[in-house]
Amino acid sequence: MSRILIIGAGLSGATLAERFAHRGDSVLVLDKRAHLAGNCFDHLDRGTGIRVSNYGAHLFHTNKEEVWDYFRAFSRWQPYEHQVLVKVKNQLLNLPINLNTINQFFHQKLKNAAEMRAFLAKKTKKLKNVANSEDYVLSQVSSELYEAIFQNYSLKQWALDPSELDAAVIKRNPLRFNTDNRYFTDRYQALPVNGFEGLVKKMLSHQNIELCLKTDFFNFREQNDLSQFEQIFYTGAIDQYFDYAYGHLEYRSLDFHFEEHDLEFYQENSAVNYPSLDYPFTRIIEYKYFYPPAKPIAKTIISKEYPTWDGEPYYPVPRERNHLLLKKYLREAKKLETQGIHFVGRLGTYRYLNMDQAVAEALKLFERVKK
Question: How many domains does the chain have?
Fold first, then answer.
């Protein structure tokens, strides 16, 4: 039996903990927060019975059969296909941009992909080198849609102009030449019946797992001999682990403002984006859409998201400055692998990872190091 230390009780940490515990190892999981499940943590609001995500919307979707099969062992799931609307003046447009969006915004009656391609060909710029998010949007959907949907949203979300961001940021919203209004097109799209808190709780319920919440790893490291652990998996911020030796990586955070309203529904959809600078927040999430109550209630809960540099690190900022710093930290992390220390997850690898990607990478890492 090996002793395993895992820092972070989010999806990456929980997956590794469950796998090692299932193998028969003794696993200690630390998390500085007072709850498990990381940023996926949700709870049932006592007053309304509505399930609310404490850190914004978290929606599971994947084409990875192995991840879907793995997750299904820990929860029952209910189907949910996400849609996003974006408020532009008095219109609510579909996002990602598709045939419906083009017809709505430009007041057209295009009927198919061929007509949409022909229409956009007259609106877009032909660029030899797509160097950033601004280039990508201008080459795909026109300057009008760029200004209406992307430019100011980026300024609010990242505090950066799209010209300063990698093209990969905008590519997460692919252009579609059909009328599919779903935000994701993955084969499997669902939510755990008892929430992500219930899912992770089940994953960490193995008798070989000890969970210590409200425990800061860096304090723990000062007070304990880490050599007692054969393997250590760190899911926190990689630059913090190395005491910011090469400088701080940039992370954007969110300030969530929750509101309860005496309405059956506050808005037309679970998620509405607000790209205009007239609104200080970037989007409003209405949680009843994710887990509809068994009986209609004249109460609803929303959250408004205000991007900030302060608070918990949520989003790695994809620009050249951070890429250069990250290379230095990854070199240091590589050296520690011989000591059984591994960096995992969005913060541990400083990458934007969807839930299924985080779980898939944790499963792959387990298979690699278990020998």
Answer: 2
Is there a contact between 358 and 39 (Cβ–Cβ < 8 Å)? no
In a domain, 193, yes or no: no
Residues 322, 245 share a domain: yes
- Which tens digit of pLDDT belongs to each residue from 44-100? 999 999 999 999 999 999 999 999 999 999 999 999 999 999 999 999 999 999 999
Q: How many CB atoms lie within 10 A of CB 1?
A: 10
Count of other CB atoms within 10 angstroms of residue 8: 26
Give the tokens for residue 113. Answer: 């992909």
Q: Against a cut of 0.85, is the pTM above it?
A: yes
Q: Give yes or no: residues 141 and 237 share one domain.
A: no
Preceding amide of 296 cis, omega within 30: no
Query: What is the distance between the alpha carbons of residues 142 and 125, in angstroms, rounded to a whole number?
Result: 7
Contact 50, 259 (CB under 8 A): no
153 shares a domain with 109: yes
Q: How far apart, in whole angstroms, are the C-alpha atoms of residue 339 and residue 342? A: 9
